[in-house]
Write a structure and sequence with these properties.
- The chain has 329 residues and is α/β, with parallel strands linked by helices.
- It has 15 helices and 5 strands.
- It has a 5-stranded parallel beta sheet, with helices on both faces.
- It is globular.
Length: 329
Amino acid sequence: MTSTTDANTDTPGTTGTPGTPGTYGKLRAQLATLTTEAFRPELAEIDRLSTEEIARIMNGEDATVPAAVAERLPQIAAAIDATAERMARGGRLIYAGAGTAGRLGVLDASECPPTFNTDPAEVVGLIAGGPSAMVTAVEGAEDSKELAAADLDALKLTADDTVVGISASGRTPYAIGAVEHARAQGALTIGLSCNADSALAAAAEHGLEVVTGPELLTGSTRLKAGTAQKLVLNMISTVTMIRLGKTYGNLMVDVRASNEKLRARSRHIVSLATGASDTAIEAALAATDGEVKNAILVILGQVDGPTAARLLTESDGHLRAALAAVRTT
């Protein structure tokens, strides 16, 4: 089964007039080898089932995804450690994908600034076809390695950056092109796919192949494969930020209080971390321009706002290290 893009784009290496049986022979043969594209005859009459029965089947399918991710945890952890090491040197985390995979990367990147107070340029999501492809398919964009290289060049890629190519099939040219170009520039590369022995994983320094098997709807990789990709991207960004000191325990101490809900959450976080009274919390936040991590250090370390800022700078933003520095002085 081919995607909309496959069905409307000539594939290098194929012959025949568009629309004739021989046009997409090579690509169809490639897709036939992918577990994410496999047809499941036992579901051939799923449309005859009740809505609840279909939902129950889907729920059962989704329940298999965490186990598939669990099989790759050692490889995922190694990729995260390497990413955190680069980011600690000032590098960026860059996701690159097409279609659903690209949208998931953009989503994960966009959630980092409010959650971890990162600069928007620190975690970046690239989607084939540009921002408009988030809501409207850009035909043919996923088929260009050159487009991926140009998108990375526009970011002025450095050797301290990490590029994560995302593709359920593991054969999407845009994702592979991003990884190949990044690796040639000396950047760290991760290839996240949902098929074994994928070209994407082979191109990357860290190949993460989370094999989720055939989909409920043949070839609809926004389902189990998309869920698996979301879970892995959650791990990459979240655990990397934990390693970078963006949390204190399981508290989001670098949260950016940009609205009323987050301002209330900021106060709750300071309360959980310190057990201080509301009056003390408000005073600490006022002394630190609303910075949660600094306010916690003011209360627990019994220091003023400027001292808290200095200690955190000297500790590379790690609150536990800053607290240890206070206690040893």
